[in-house]
Amino acid sequence: MAVCIAVIAKENYPLYIRSLPTQNELKFHYTVHTSLDVVEEKISAVGKSVGDQRELYLGLLYPTEDYKVYGYVTNSKVKFVIVVDSSNTSLRDNEIRSMFRKLHNSFTDVMCNPFHNPGDTIQSKTFDGIVSGMMVPPG
Amino acid sequence: MADESLFDFLHMEIVSHIYKEQQSGKEEMDNKDRAVCVSVLESMGFRVGQGLIERLTRDSPSFKDELDVMKFVCKDFWTKVFRRQVDNLRTNHQGTYVLQDNTFSLLTQLSNGKQYLDQAPKYLAFSCGIVRGALSNLGLDSVVTAEVSVMPSCKFQVVVQKL
To answer: How is this protein annotated for GO cellular component (chain B) (predicted)?
Structure first.
């Protein structure tokens, strides 16, 4: 279960960022911002290895003392960042991958919506619903 | 197989609607009006291309370089959108690509002779927009133009803008 989910555009500004309301939201914004550097590093690093099939899932970006940050980049250079609680060790790689898949599917639907302009913040209620389903329900 | 004609008809109607709107009240269309129509069609195609590419590249791995992107556009993208592959892709390796399609699906319904040759570009504007939108979402800013010499074959010229 995620603690914070963010969608970052190609130009590195946030299209959608949502964290648990009970926590210090600004801290999550900073965490997501710093994780962008790691994402860039991974993207350019994979480019150097010739013949490697580049995957969209970037894996664990970096662990902090309380949280683990995972990244995923789409072919249109839109980045998804998920922050999960470190204490929740039962989350396996596969589950994180499936969360990213769901996010990507729902993001694709948002992009195909003719009322959405690419580059605007995401206002879709369906997308909100999917994200809420993935976040820890506030206790 | 009726699905294919659905888009063909819709596209024909879009083109004629835009031109009729622009012409309303005036006797003759001058070049400026024609340019407006073409750019309206092209920008519609641009938005459609962006959404399409998001859906089509969802599962495929990242592209290694520009040429890889162009090959994807010529094969998979063209197949999904125009139901065939591009016949010929030429490049000068400096950022200019020419995609040649010998039986472009949106032109097959127009007759082969010279009579409608000057009307053909109208029907290509939307497709130019689609290609431009697709490339822009994949990270390549470009200018796409199309030309027709013999129907229904047409050439799309893509010039990738370098920063």
So the answer is: cis-Golgi network; endoplasmic reticulum; trans-Golgi network; TRAPP complex
